[in-house]
Amino acid sequence: MKERNLLFGLFLLITLSISGQTSRKFTLNITPDGASTLTCFLPDRPTGRAIVDCPGGGYVWLSMGKEGYDWADYFNQKGISYFVLKYRLPKGNHQLPVSDAENAIRLVRDSASQWKINPYDVGIMGFSAGGHLASTVSTHADYNARPDFSLLFYPVITMGNGTHEGSRINFLGTSPDAQSINAFSNEKQIRAHLTPPAVIFLANDDNVVPPIENGVAYYTAMRKAGNDCSLYIYPTGGHGFGFNTHFTYHEQLLNDLSEWLTTHPSPLLNAVRIACIGNSITDGAGIDMNSEKGYPACLQKDLGTGYLVNNFGVSGRTMLNKGDYPYMKELAWKDAMAFKPNIVIIKLGTNDSKPQNWRYKQDFRQDMQQMIDSLKSLPSHPKIYLATPIPALKKSWDINDSIITKGIIPVILKVARKNRCKVLDLHTSFSPYINLLQQDGIHPTAMGAAKLAEIIATEIKK
């Protein structure tokens, strides 16, 4: 009997030593007066991943238990640093909770080295109205306050038809204008590549926050944008199940969440950061789920975990600042700079060949130099690769391959020599694979994007 107890004790000791637990718990003020606080649960075996939690409560109170503190052990046992935000209730002033959530993300990133956190692996979690707050930060915040992933539980998403009326009144006031309703209907604010990956958990019989107009609508918008998003809908559970162990699907919920976290691995802390800057070819236009099949995503797979590749492509954009859609006026450009890349791949010029843009050809060189100078000023001092446009087989959208070869590429080569930038001659190296272009003769297919990534990865590995 003693031997059995001894073996059980030994098994328990081994189990506890393998699974993590909370090593430190403390609370910090987000606002000087303590109206908003962040309760921190740091694991004894940190993986570098962190999550900031926004409890729900209709923007009128906060469910700090089952939608807050009760999750700490679950995450800490996985080595995930966990932070519960007590945000200020808006009472019609939506800036109060939004600024609290953004400041919480900034605080976690600013304390990353002290708390053993990877600043490129900080997520946000939200329940009900807290899910609206989490999705607001995910779609509206500047890069340094925008999370790297979102966990949304029965979230309020829309402020329009199908909203939770109490949340809308408390967040926007009793008579919000159409512009405010649209701005904070977050299913309308999804941005390709820039809105972080998300996973959504709903109950089919939720009669408080309608699933179709809210969680399903967010998933649909993410899917249409080609962004990474997963959706789990349980048959029953109503609204507000949180960490309630009596929820019929509680264990399945934890398993589903664990699996999602596992299949979205953390980037290495010292991964080489690569920013892919470009137009629709970088964006992945015409490729379904381009967040997984566009050339930057394929480049990530080719290079492996030692690299962190982000897609900052925007369709239709030009290098020319006087072009119809200048890249350097886009949020993606601002985000690419804030990413502090170690390597930058600039693939612009295709749209500059259009007649309405190339009439400003005398500015092309100086505008490219402006982009390079801005990148050189970054503290990360990135290595810059200038990519020539791939061949344009057709004059779709008035894109002109003759102008690309005789006008644009020579300028790219001159600027590269002047700045000692690496050149990716994609116009030449992709020529044998023009059969991998879409019918428009401009954009690569998914197979073409994979080949493009392979060509670029080979050069980077050199």
Quick summary:
By secondary structure, this protein is of the alpha/beta class.
Oligomer: single chain
Number of strands: 13
Structural class: alpha/beta
Shape: elongated
Uncertain spans? 1-18
Strand arrangement across the biggest beta sheet: 1-2-4-3-5-6-7-8
Description:
With 462 residues, the chain is α/β, with parallel strands linked by helices. The chain has helices spanning 2-18, 72-77, 95-110, 112-115, 129-140, 165-172, 178-183, 215-224, 250-263, 280-283, 290-293, 295-303, 331-338, 355-358, 364-376, 401-419, 426-429, 446-461, and strands spanning 22-29, 37-43, 50-54, 81-86, 122-127, 149-153, 198-203, 229-234, 272-278, 307-313, 343-347, 383-387, 422-424. Strands 1-2-4-3-5-6-7-8 form an eight-stranded mixed sheet, sandwiched between helices. The radius of gyration is 24 Å and the shape is elongated. The protein starts with a helix and ends with a helix. The model is unreliable at 1-18 (pLDDT under 50).
